[in-house]
Amino acid sequence: MGALSIRQVTKRYGENHILKSVDLDIAEGEFVILVGPSGCGKSTLLSVVAGLDSPTSGRIVLGDRDITYLAPKDRDIAMVFQSYALYPNMTVEQNISFALEMRKVPKAERRVLIDKVSRMLQLDQLLDRKPAQLSGGQRQRVAMGRALARQPSLFLFDEPLSNLDAKLRVEMRAEIKLLHQRTKTTTVYVTHDQVEAMTLGDRVAVMRDGIVQQFGTPDEIYGRPATRFVAEFIGSPAMNMVHAKWERNRLYARGFELPVSPHAIAMVQAHANEDMIYGLRPESISFGPPGTGLAGELKMIEPTGPESYAFVHTAAGPFVVRVPGKLKAQVGEPVSLVWQPADVHLFDAVTEARMSDEPLQLAVA
Amino acid sequence: MSAATALGTARVTPVMARGRSRSWQRWLLWAMLIGFATLFLAPLYVMVVTSLKSMDEVRAGTLLALPHALDASSWGKAWSTACTGADCQGLRPFFWNSVMIVLPAVLMSTVLGGVNGYVLSKWRFRGSETMFAMLLFGVFMPLQVVLLPMSQILGWLGIASSVWGLILVHLLCGLPGTTLFFRNYYAALPDELIKAAMLDGAGFWGIFVRIVLPLSTPIIVVCLIWQFTQIWNDFLFGVVFSGADSKPVTVALNNLANTTSSVKEYNVDMAAALIAGLPTLFVYIVAGRYFVRGLTAGAVKG
Questions:
Q1: CATH number, position B153
Q2: What is the CA radius of gyration of chain B?
Q3: Residue B231 sits in which domain range?
Q4: What domains sit in chain A, N to C, each tagged with a CATH number?
Q5: Number of domains within chain B
Q6: Do residue A131 and residue B297 have CB atoms under 8 angstroms apart?
Q7: Residue-wise pLDDT tens digits, B7-65
Q8: Which residues of A touch B302 (CB under 8 A)?
Q9: Contact yes or no for A139/A84 (Cβ under 8 A)
Q10: Are A81 and B211 in contact (CB < 8 Å)?
Q11: Is B65 on the interface with A (CB under 8 A)?
């Protein structure tokens, strides 16, 4: 069992910087998500932790052991791959027991572990099957069982759900969460799916271009995104963003004066740059009585069942509004948008960092 | 409405026309396939019937006719008493020479090719691609090029004109081909399988023996058939590097057919040629079905 500490890890292929100094401290038993668009370095970071790739510089410490240059088999890490990587020539039982056999676990003990794991994952009926005879969800479970049976000090998941259909993905997501609550094994989970990130993680690291842009609880990531990128990446529909300019002690977007809280005014005044990004979550906006707030025209409605998304064109730019239930309005109708100044997120237009009077938690290179 | 109907009929007609032309094409296809099959099988047919005729019947000149009475004596003569040059023991000793050469050379070149392919596809190292490119060169190299240097080397090793020398030559010349086969086959095996096994605690040989080899049946069979055919049918190396009593069956067959006595015994020649060709035929028939097997299908993706 152990905490995982990733210290100033970099990875270069020639001139190509895949990881630019990544620092993450993960507590024992924690479930941490690495999320980001493809090519952000999240999978490379996972490979480096697993020992399948070595870092250009930096250290990786698991528990009290420096594992940076240990062989994968000596790290006490188990990994679930995106393709599951089940051994096609072996039955489910052999797949699960392979690692134990390689570690010279006595046969009787292997039997006990396989029983335990297969009951936990409802694999008892499938032990004699080959991977080719299993459905996607069953393969996924075998892959987890294989990792689980070893009782490693660290679990790695590399986009484990992306090969499953939408319904199964939700089921397996819940199963992974329950499993973690039972075993309390430190887990690092890579995904590009923000819903997985928000629902599974104790903490989430949002990565982009080889840098961790923000590392915090799902609440922090959603409620106080550290950069414009994090704000746009997490949340669906994405956060509304308008370019705004600070003029004559007011904030304007294409001539419309944007409401700002007094707290934000003080912050903006202290800020050197006058160009900024004004961000609003779709659920922070609502429809006001005519004549109030920002006037616009309803262009499109997307009903999803429990809620609807309204796409509105305004003088300040396009906005998406999230309303619960069904929206009783016609496309083409004039509407006006209102919101609380406290819900506004402000970002510097140049550095794209969140404007804050608190010191920034993360250095953005 | 009327436009839609017009469109509908316009679309139906060419479909029917295509259906007719398709059956016509099918007839042509069958006719051609049967024609070519006959063309290719005719020599084999002539060989088989001639080998079963008596010399009198052969002389009668009815090449395509079935034998009046089955006469297998020419097979016996070809096997044990026909003259290949000065000695007259038939093909038998040379057939066993070929077996002695082929078995170890095929097995060793397949095993080494498998290990090579495994390393070159799953354990790449600096320069491994260059190495593979150079090996590829070996596949396309005309074999005549190596005759002189090879005989020199066999001389140094003291195994010139022996079965051992031929085994070594065939092993070395087969290696580029078998490596290419295995390397390309293993390139299609997902890397994640290897990574998973590494994390599970298996080492280089553990992964090869427990994971990779069990998935290799199709390519092993392909390799065995390929190598067997190549080495069994080899004439060039057999003629150049063999001594008087280490000649392979192909060289002996040539000598048998060229040994002139008073009469040209076509039936014996044909029987000898069939004897020399039977093992490759046998291998194809026994192992051929493995050619089309894909064992990893459906094993990885969901």
A1: 1.10.3720.10
A2: 27
A3: 80-292
A4: 4-229 (3.40.50.300), 235-348 (2.40.50.140)
A5: 1
A6: no
A7: 444 444 444 455 566 788 899 999 999 999 999 999 999 999 999 988 888 888 778 88
A8: 84, 135-136, 139-140, 163-164
A9: yes
A10: no
A11: no
